[in-house]
Amino acid sequence: MNAVLVKNAHVYAPEDLGRNDILLVNDKIAALAPDITLPACLEPALLLDAEGRAAVPGFIDAHVHITGGGEAGFHTQVPPLPLSVPLSGGVTTLGGLLGTDGVTRHVDNVLAKACSLEEEGLSTFIMTGGYPLPSPTITGSVTRDFACVSKVRGGKIAIADHRVAPVSAAQLAALATDVRVGGMLRGIVGMLIIHIGAAPEGLARIFEVIDQCPYLARHLIATHINRSPQAFEQAMLLARRGGFMDVSSGLNSATLGPDTLKPSTAIAVALRSGVPPEQILMSSDGNGSAARYDDQGHVEGLVASDLRTLCAEFRDCVLAEGLSMTQALAPVTSNVARAFSLFPAKGALTAGSDADVLVLDADLRPWSLFAKGRHMLHEGRVLCKGTFEE
To answer: Counting beta carbons within 10 angstroms of the beta carbon of residue 48, is it exposed (0 to 12), middle (13 to 18) or buried (19 or more)?
Structure first.
């Protein structure tokens, strides 16, 4: 039995629980109380004094291109995600998916990389599908992927984007239904991540779907919605109708241009506009290829989006936007866990939850990190690198 005792932490579960100790036994949180004293027969393998630092659930990033991205020639292909990057960003649970390239990369590759990261210490799940229709799958069917592949918790599609053919409301509803039924067969809520491109229609197809099938709203996540004021306004309406708005921390004015809303500002505006807080998510779009195009469709700039922006924008939610720790944490912990049927194993600090604990320093940067009870980062230094990292 491996026991770890974190002493004197200010716990945000993400609710503010004040000063507490946290006992981790193997891969679970065994106890959380103001003063935990262990008997001599149960000496912890590690005693960590947090000295009043904030202890929060490990971040959940549900939109990561774990196999890499690339869309401007083969030389622009982003390498697969190394383990050290999510660890340094405070992320303990990843959702992997495809981007533009569904030809040289496939859902099978995403599954294999997710299993690799799991073996290295993280928790992972994946989305089947990709940008186009028909959806690329593992088994030949979106619904069958959900039913037969345990890591599948979501689907993926792109709309309003020049890289895919126009998607009709009927096609989108059919895919969302496949995702919904696949989740039902597994006893989870199947989720469909919908990439929103720059075309003027924005989220229009989504509203056509939920006008006819309002029960599908719960399954829909519109992502990249801070790319423009129009997409953001539409996304707030979707959230009010039961869907999810997903702010992309990796999108900013440097990557997409001046119309892009700063992610932390987008979250603060949504909350202050009365959007139901539980419908707001944030993901990084990490390790993907972020391309900016000119009016003729030529690539003006290309960068790999950084997963660590998730923590940076959480930090700005508190320090720049004045949100409470609980408000800032929910979009990257409990809200995501609930959306993907992972709560309270993930996204919470409570007895019985997985031992995914992030301790932040006074400046709200990752200081120490436990993933499933394994100490993987301390004093901002990664303790466990991936197999092929130097």
So the answer is: buried
* Residue 254 confidence (pLDDT) above 90: no
Instruction: Give me the half-sphere count of Cα atoms (radius 13 Å) on the Cβ side of residue 210.
Output: 21
Q: Residue 126: how many CA atoms within 13 Å on its side-chain side?
A: 31
Banded pLDDT at 296 (limits 50, 70, 90): low
149-172 pLDDT, tens digit per residue, is 999 999 999 999 999 999 999 999
Judge whether 286 and 81 are in contact, CB under 8 Å: yes
φ/ψ of residue 115, rounded to 5: -65, -35
285 catalytically annotated? yes
d(CA 105, CA 95): 16
Task: Return the structure tokens found at 306.
Answer: 């950084």
Options 101, 285, 306, 354, the catalytic residue: 285
Whether pTM exceeds 0.90: yes
Give CA–CA dist 194/185, Å, rounded.
Answer: 22
Tokens (6 digits) for 362: 């006074």
